[in-house]
Amino acid sequence: MRWFGRGGKAAEGTRSRSKSKAHAELPIDRVALDNVELDPLALLGRAAYVQLAQFHALSRAAADAPTVEAKGSLASAAGQFLASHRAMVAALEHRGANPAEAMAPFEPATDRFFADVRGANWYEGLTSCYLVDGLLDDFYSRLLAGIEPDGRELSRLLTGPRASAEVVAVLSAAIARDPRLGSRLAVWGRRLVGDTLLCARGALPETVRTPAGEARVEPVLTELMAEHTRRMDRLGLTA
Amino acid sequence: MRWFGRGGKAAEGTRSRSKSKAHAELPIDRVALDNVELDPLALLGRAAYVQLAQFHALSRAAADAPTVEAKGSLASAAGQFLASHRAMVAALEHRGANPAEAMAPFEPATDRFFADVRGANWYEGLTSCYLVDGLLDDFYSRLLAGIEPDGRELSRLLTGPRASAEVVAVLSAAIARDPRLGSRLAVWGRRLVGDTLLCARGALPETVRTPAGEARVEPVLTELMAEHTRRMDRLGLTA
Q: Is the ipTM of this complex over 0.90?
């Protein structure tokens, strides 16, 4: 798995590595990405809009949930993305930026991406809410950690359990009832990775979009893949 | 306008009354409804599910909003319905009830109602978020005020500005740009009233669904209509 090219054997290496550190804490404080030069306003605008899109995707899944219980628990989970969106909007305002203007450049591509990962049915859409949101949160938490003075605080908003407990509960119950659903969602989960990394890499500056730059972000990619595999495991799916 | 029958000249009377007290505070503490005998668990279950449905309707409108600014502000506004839903879920748990079971009986009719008022386009749907939510909030805040010991606190969650500032800002700007939209939304707003009152009356006990009971809730109906007219006025629409 590579960010800026095709092929490579990284994916297999990632997989076996994930087994050994499946429950390790995310090493946010020592990642390669926090020494990558980033424009704070562009990063905050992009991250704020991505959080809003995640909120919309999960609240849509909540509205269409098959049980009252899932409607309520997924709506509550969606509220966490709204809260982190608002924290980033506040960070933009604190810097004197107009949040809507800061987010606007990232709207078209982000909306297209989230439309693509909505899937063919409700279960695929909800699986995306778990796997895509997980990957994007892991990625943006690393990027945000590098901006001063509030980056680490914002970064922490994107770590921790977030919506995953509620989403995993709903999906695991459905997969347990219907093993064929599990097989289909495993395929879907593998398909999501490439698109999500492509969506994420847009946030990286041009300076790392070179062979030398690629080497700098490679360890991060490996970590993101390991976390993705751990999430697939939690659903009982093979990554 | 009557709750339990057809016809009558109440609507016209309501209309003119509303003009004189358009900006009066809602007299929650002296309404007829708080002496109506209600089952607290049924009321909380119904109100919790209605709040959740309002959250879903407004977050859906937020997701489909035409500008980044409206997407953000409407999503934040939707968060208030999520917060009041969760407060009611907490009140159910505090009473030892299972919130999902308490809400379940009200799911089918509530979902049907909210599907009906989604309208033919985004503007109609958003107008419903303002007018329907306003009517239902006014109604449930009165009912909740009558239950002990936390009814007044829950009631207050449904009063005050809530989502209306954000929704009114978006709708007013659109109506100002396109007067024909205003005419269509005025027709839509008038159509919503009957359906919404029908949705609301399900919460009233059988004991007031009689001619004598009707007389007891008549003043409340008049007040709800006055508040509805005030909301139409805020959009520049004729009720």
A: no
